[in-house]
Design a protein that fits this description.
The structure is a homodimer of 434-residue chains. The first copy, chain A, has two domains: 10-171 and 422-433, Enolase-like, N-terminal domain (Enolase-like, domain 1, 2-Layer Sandwich); 182-419, Enolase-like C-terminal domain (TIM Barrel). Chain A contains 17 helices and twelve strands. Chain A has helices at residues 63-75, 82-86, 89-97, 100-103, 110-131, 135-140, 144-149, 162-171, 176-186, 202-214, 228-242, 258-268, 285-295, 309-317, 333-347, 360-375, 419-424, and strands at residues 10-17, 37-44, 51-58, 188-196, 219-223, 247-251, 273-277, 299-302, 323-324, 384-386, 400-401, 404-405.
């Protein structure tokens, strides 16, 4: 149980990049030419069939920096028994994250924090495979004290005490089995971002909207922020295609000043968006709070660039975040996301994870499923983001049916990529880069 | 003028580390064994006597990550004419900082932002040398519009408009010559952190206090945060040595929860500290505001780990920062620090820069001098930090007289290290590491 007898013997880090900039996939007001990339880690044990995989998602240049940081973190756990990590996973996380020399480069942010997250998630992938369970189930079936033992609550004391966190987890105990049945039956609701990238032509947007509606999607997100008149035109186009009753969301990718966000959303409000995502700089808690007060009932959504649990805490305290968009790769892995899920549950804010990129959909489905089963206990008002790129490279890709994610069933965190994909997209050496 | 005819032809990045952990220099509640380090950059022109030097300060492991990021940024400016950068320095800064693929790793934080800062400061060093002026004078003698043209005010609009910034700079025009005379006569007041590191014995602390008092120091900072009883004992010791009238400051290096900071400072208040520095996590604007309200009249000081101008803006808006401790190496170089100096002036908060480490004293003396001459116009209530380590490695080290920094006179940013020091402390190859 819990990795006894399994020792981490070695690791391999790979710089994986997809030349997505060629097709304008992922283009938005801030990111014009992303090459979706992964600082990819494989943890090896004595059994070549028993490996842990994890990745940090980046959009191109600098992926090598994450790889270098990932090597430094990974070297520290070679020779460790898996059980020695998982029996006090929160303490282990705090120890790794607290390395004082590395901490100077953050703390809790940027390249080193993203690399920490990739390592932590690779350990969870290994742990779940050893236990023979999908990650969401591994966590959901833990007792409340066990879950809490994975979490470092440091610096959260003025928002969430240990006792409150435990109480939240305990009150989610009732009904776990029923909620798992609900997920098995109907999956977890999702929305699509694939229709509304800035780089797409009007015809392509219309066609994608029609396809998505006929595939059963009910939530659609469009990119805004480059030019207001263009945003208004495209919003009208999409609203006309999806009708008045389906959900439209808008994403400004940090493009605006606070006053600009408020003014622009007053105009875009006519198309009845559910939320405006990343209206301004992702570190600006007080700015988001100002926008949230001004644009209600439109909600402010943010989180994909939120560096750590201390920033999430403040967004929630300040009512600056009406929708909490956790990201699987930005913070220090699953352990830190458990802290953030607990905070969001405490403040009653729905979690709608950021996804897309490479592997983010694969990762975050587990987070939303375990949140529903074991933390918030709620699915209402929550949606998972879905983007239909690059899933073919994964061994156990997400499965979507009628606009819902289906429960992952294979052991692990669903993040393992196919060996042939790793070879082909290996940066500078793979055939995709020759 | 402004670098016309000077082209950046090449660059060299060096990983420089000092084995300071051997002597407990720099030890505090969070950083037990720092090896003071520098990701060090030399920008080369056609004239081997005309080079720009810059560095990012780190405390050991991970310095190589900053070096790698610094190489990526530096490669982008090879072949550029210096004048093409300096004629729209704010626009150039925004362009480099806005590289969308690199920005994903921040934005505006961590390894990539520190590397950007080192490059930007190296450009300023070159610029000042070409102009034959110390950096502080180069900036202080610019017209208000020229200074403002160096600054990217993005995301600051809800706190500081362009018009307000210009007005601040214009009102500092009067009296510049007089303030330069003041600096020439009496320098800029400083305080010493050299007496109070956690790793020092009581006898050493007493001896250092006595020496510092006899050298004319009037401000003393001690480290706290490891153990309250020990903090109380050492505070009593230091207060007894320095007397009731000299200034005592305390620095917790992010060790406490919010409630813990408040409780502990209520006990430590008996020793009458002027400020408590970094009481909790450096990203916690709202937490610092809570502490600031509870511990007044003791001020809350922070900033050395504040990642960018957007966080500084919020600390000022929320009255969470009674003393603004800018750092020369954490944010994106001088251009971003100019934005922060303008914000602090707008909110009337004194700037007392963080120093110590390697080269921070050399850097920040210029920031405080130019703030006094050309931005806030004030010196009252402001002090520069001083730590007496590692100055011998610099070509133009700081000069201290009776507890005051003396005006730097050599052209440049004072950050150039001696070739023999660079060779000796070159990580893994220099004689210090053999």
């Amino acid at each position: 149980m819990r990795g006894k007898g399994i020792t981490i013997r070695n690791y391999k880090v790979r710089d994986i990049r997809f030349p997505t900039s060629l097709g304008a996939h992922g283009s938005d007001a801030m990111n014009k030419d992303p090459d979706y990339s992964a600082a990819y880690l494989i943890l090896k044990t004595d059994d070549s069939a028993c490996q842990g995989h994890g990745l940090a998602f980046t959009i191109g240049r600098g992926n090598d920096l994450c790889c270098a940081a990932l090597r430094q973190f990974s070297a520290q756990i070679v020779g460790m028994e898996l059980a020695a990590i998982t029996e006090d996973f929160g303490g282990f996380w705090k120890h790794l994250n607290g390395d004082s020399q590395i901490r100077w480069l953050g703390p809790d942010k940027g390249v080193v924090h993203m690399a920490l997250g990739a390592l932590i998630n690779a350990i969870w992938d290994l742990y779940a495979k050893v236990e023979g369970k999908p990650l969401w189930r591994l966590v959901a079936e833990m007792r409340p004290e066990q879950i809490l033992k994975c979490v470092d609550l440091s610096y959260l004391g003025n928002a969430l005490s240990r006792a409150e966190a435990l109480e939240l987890l305990e009150s989610a105990e009732a009904g776990k089995a029923v909620r798992i049945e609900v997920l098995e039956r109907s999956g977890y609701p999702a929305y699509t971002t694939s229709v509304g990238w800035l780089g797409y032509s009007d015809e392509r947007i219309q066609q994608l909207c029609r396809e998505a509606v006929s595939d059963g999607w009910t939530g659609f997100k469009m990119k805004v922020g480059a030019d207001l008149q263009d945003d208004l035109r495209r919003a009208q186009l999409i609203r006309a295609e999806i009708g008045a009753d389906r959900i439209l969301m808008m994403d400004a990718n940090q493009k605006w000043e606070v006053a600009e966000a408020i003014a622009n959303m007053r105009e875009l409000a006519v198309y009845n968006p559910l939320w405006i995502e990343e209206p301004t700089h992702p570190d600006d808690v007080l700015g988001h709070a100002e926008i949230a007060r001004a644009v209600q009932p439109i909600k402010v959504a943010t989180g994909e660039h939120c560096a750590n649990r201390i920033l999430f805490k403040q967004f929630l305290q300040a009512e600056a975040m009406g929708v909490c968009q956790i990201d699987a790769c930005r913070v220090g892995g699953l352990n830190e996301n458990l802290a953030i899920l607990l905070l969001a549950a405490k403040y009653g804010v729905p979690v709608c994870p950021h996804a897309g990129g490479v592997g983010l959909c694969e990762y975050v489905q587990h987070l939303s499923m375990l949140d529903f089963v074991a933390i918030s206990g709620k699915r209402e008002g929550r949606m998972l983001e879905y983007v239909d790129h690059l899933h073919e490279h994964f061994v156990d890709p997400v499965r979507i049916h009628k606009g819902c994610y289906q429960l992952p069933r294979a052991p692990g965190f669903s993040i393992e990529m196919k060996p042939e994909s790793l070879a082909r997209f290996d940066f500078e050496n793979g055939s995709a880069w020759k």
